[in-house]
Hints:
Oligomer: heterodimer
Number of strands of chain A: 11
Radius of gyration of chain A: 13 Å
Largest sheet of chain B: 6 strands, mixed
Shape of chain A: globular
Strand content of chain B: over 45%
Structural class of chain B: mainly beta
Strand content of chain A: over 45%
Distance between the termini of chain A: 32 Å
Amino acid sequence: ETGVTQSPTHLIKTRGQQVTLRCSSQSGHNTVSWYQQALGQGPQFIFQYYREEENGRGNFPPRFSGLQFPNYSSELNVNALELDDSALYLCASGGQGQGNTEAFFGQGTRLTVV
Amino acid sequence: GNSVTQMEGPVTLSEEAFLTINCTYTATGYPSLFWYVQYPGEGLQLLLKATKADDKGSNKGFEATYRKETTSFHLEKGSVQVSDSAVYFCAPSGGYQKVTFGTGTKLQVIP
């Protein structure tokens, strides 16, 4: 158990809709990262939040956005869903500071866009 | 940025065979190195880690040694089991847990 929980576990949405995925990190973990893992691929970095501010972003369009809250929870929002957004979305959290390198992953949310 | 190269899969082995999955990386600075495992239909689990050169990470019979000279972190296990069938990801991680993943190596162990 990593202490990182994601909800929901599975989700089906229609193209063009909006979706919010949620993550609850371990207490004390003030860094949260989100990854997209398409079928048969490795996880791709979407963005990271550190102390509620964006701290790096991968090659994803602005319709992917996030929020981090003081209670160690966070959200990934995706607008105008496309079929290619179908993937496993992983949340990872970690401890304080630049020196912390270990990421603790949740079990993921599997999003299907139809 | 960081990058990682793993051997192409799938790797198919008979039970009790010796396993090696090669991993080389490029990175700025001195990242920590991790192996993650993903069982079918599940998320990522940390298998083992090494945080500095010459460290050996080990867990559940798996081992990997951080080789700074060759920028490698090869995964080995002396005797694989059917239950080891999964996808394995080598992943360097820099500050603030900036983890880089490759495409992974699928391992299939047959009885």
